[in-house]
Design brief:
Length: about 90
């Protein structure tokens, strides 16, 4: 099975540093699972498809991550990590 390349956009890094340690750990596990198994990750809290090749899940009640798959490229880009109130969906 081919692994996915996962890239976290630079604009997400500041927010990631503000997350509680538990949520950072969940995010790291999510990124590892996406790399290994692909962008569809139904085992994560409130996982859902939010558009064409776009997905999100909750890291905890207050924090979410959003990512996009680029078809036929085995490439996934995390474009949002932050509060669920400001999530782009």
């Amino acid at each position: 099975m081919r692994k996915y390349t996962v890239r976290v956009l630079k604009k997400c890094e500041k927010k990631i540093n503000q997350l509680p340690e538990k949520d950072i750990n969940t995010l790291v596990m999510l990124l590892e699972d996406i790399e290994q198994y692909g962008p569809v990750q139904p085992k994560y809290q409130n996982f859902s498809k939010i558009g064409k090749n776009k997905y999100h899940c909750h890291l905890s009640y207050h924090w979410v991550a959003c990512w996009q798959e680029f078809e036929n490229e085995f490439y996934v880009e995390v474009y949002y990590v932050g509060s669920r109130e400001n999530a782009p969906y």
